[in-house]
Structure formats: structure tokens, C-alpha cells
């Protein structure tokens, strides 16, 4: 066995933080965020509500939802004012890279906390970069709207329907935080050095962008497009697995049963009137892929993860697939900023050991 085949290489099962923010039970298929099951949270509160809960739990003092809503609105305006400086440096870059550069350009704003500055800025940057790629001017934020409705308006240049804003809100809540995932761990490592939250969130986004983490939903749609029709599902999936490819939107380090977020997002998709034909193909691909993975990797318990229905939901909201990861980041920034605050309150530098397998001096 080589070192990268050991669980040490992936820190499997290692508890890297003590947190009051979220808990993932992979055997029960349950995600709890600040004491609430994800499905309940998505139906009972909006994005600003979950941000208030996360920041309250992280900082150990109550943050009111109304204050979050007001601060995020001001932060969207502040980010919009910075766009003339930020956008020119990102022209010609793929959106996922342009977003990295844009996030890195965000810094302290007078009258706003770093966490509000960041969580307010990311939707503005995502929308502006999508529009820039299409040759369109950015659309100013509307502080009377919540983050979800405003993000869709800034993307499209016209208001979204209430159902669309609600569906996006369910997504933002659902993916707002998720235990010690790779990008959150990156945020906590950076925050543990007492670097500021702008550094922590930039690092977290870089970790999120990879296809094994938040870069998966675009490729999920590529897979559905490549399959195209029912009759192609079995040959396409079987050939991919025979080549040793990973099927995007399936498998998870923690969940050994279906990811509970997939069901919340599937319910949100159902409210959008996506054509039965498109949903039917996705459902057939999901069924077949689960069976094929069980045959190809017996005992591994690979099931549908959040990215499968993320792809279908964000596509139904007409968000271009190269912006899926930035939109994911706009939601997960809620968790990243909360974890950065929580980590800094411990005052403890994250500095693990490694297992040396190289030669020793004679
Ligand atoms: N398709 C095919 N095979 C898979 C898949 C998959 N989606 N996922 C895991 N496997 C295989 C692995 O190749 C491995 O096979 P082996 O034992 O023969 O070597 C076995 O199943 C176990 O996989 P691990 O790599 O140990 O699983 P790990 O916990 O490291 O991986 C991961 C989790 C990275 C999410 C993986 O399942 C994957 O690559 N999935 C596809 C990408 C994806 O959907 N990413 C989004 C994840 S959700 C999120 O981050 C928001």
C-alpha cells in the first residue's frame, strides 16, 4: 500500500475542529445546521436567517436576521461600487478563475464587518462576471430584495418570479454549511493563523473549485447532455466506469446513504416546472448510475450527492453552468465566514503532523 492509498492521505475520520455550526451524520443521512435539520431549515427560513444563525453560533452572541439583511444589502452596494476596479482585471478569464481574482480583490469596507462584506459581495461578483462574459454591463443590486431574488435580478437584468427566488433560496440555505468539508477546512486553516477573513474565504473558494468538491455540478450537466436519451444511459455509464472515470454527482466521503440535501433540492426543482422529459432522463440516469456503482464498487456504498440536483436546479434557474461554482461559493461563504470566526475564537493554530516515508540521512 502506498501512502496516498491510506486514510491518512485523506484525513478520513479525523476530527479537525470542534464546532457549533453543523453536523453531518453519514450513516443516518442527516445534516444538522445550528440545531436544525437541513430540510426544516430550507422550508422555515431563508438565506439571511441561516446566516444570522451561523454567525450567532460562531461568535457566541445573537445576530438578528434583520441586521444581516440590512448589512448584506449594504455590502452588495459596496461590492457593486468596486466593480469598475475589479472587472477589467478579469476580462477574458473563464468565470471560475475570474471569480477567484474578484474574490481576492474584496477587502475591508467602512461600517461593515468583514463577514458581511464578503457574503454580500460574492453574489454581486458572480452576477457581474456572468454578464461580462456575455458582453453585458453589470446590474446594480436592489437592497429591498433578499440575496436570492437580488442575485437572479443581477444575473438577468430583470426580476425573477417568486417561485424562482424561493427555489434559489432553498439552495443557498441547503449548501450554506456542511461540517468539515475541504473548503471549510481550508478556511479554518487560514483563519487559525489569525489571517483575516478575506484571506480565509479566498483560500476556501480555491479549495471549492475542484471537481471532487464544488466543481462537480457543471460536469453533471455535461454528463446528462452527453447521455442525451434513455437508450444511451447504460452504455455511457458502463463505459465511463470501465475507463475508471468518476461519475459526477455520486459518492461522498461522509454520506454512505443518499445525501439529504439531494432531496431538498429535488423538491425545489419540482416547484419550477422543469419539463418532465428533462427530469425523467435525470431520474433514470440517477437510478442506473446508483445500480452501476453498486456493481462496479461493491461495498463502497456510493449514492447520489448534493451536486446532482444542484446541477438540475441551477440549470432550471437559467444560471450558466460555468457560474455554478461561484454561486455555490456565494452560499457557502455563510459557513466559511462563520467557521473563520469560530476558529479564531479558539486562538489555536492548526498545525498537524505528517508521516515521513522518505530516506533518512546515513
Ligand atoms: N464514480 C465512480 N467511482 C467512484 C465515485 C464516483 N462518483 N466516487 C467514488 N468512487 C470509487 C473510487 O474510485 C474508489 O474506488 P476504489 O476503491 O476502487 O479505488 C471508491 O469508490 C471509494 O472512493 P474514495 O475515493 O475513497 O471516496 P472518497 O471519499 O475519497 O471520495 C468523492 C468522495 C471525492 C466525492 C468521490 O465520491 C467523487 O469523486 N465523486 C465524484 C465527484 C463529485 O460528485 N464531487 C462532489 C462531492 S459533494 C461536494 O463536495 C459538495
Keyword list:
3-stranded antiparallel beta sheet, Cytochrome p450-Terp, domain 2, mainly alpha, binds acetyl coenzyme *A, 2 domains, 362 residues, single chain, Citrate Synthase, domain 1
The secondary-structure element order is: HEEEHHHHHHHHHHHHHHH
Q: How many DSSP H or I helices?
A: 16
Number of structural units classed as domains: 2
Rg, nearest Å: 20 Å
- The SS-based structural class is mainly alpha
Task: Tell the overall outline.
Answer: globular
Q: So what's the oligomer here?
A: single chain
CATH class designation of the largest domain: Mainly Alpha
- CATH architecture assignment of the largest domain: Orthogonal Bundle
Characterize the main sheet.
3 strands, antiparallel
Looking at CATH, which topology of the largest domain would you report? Citrate Synthase, domain 1
Helix content: 55-70%
**Distance between the amino and carboxyl termini:** 25 Å
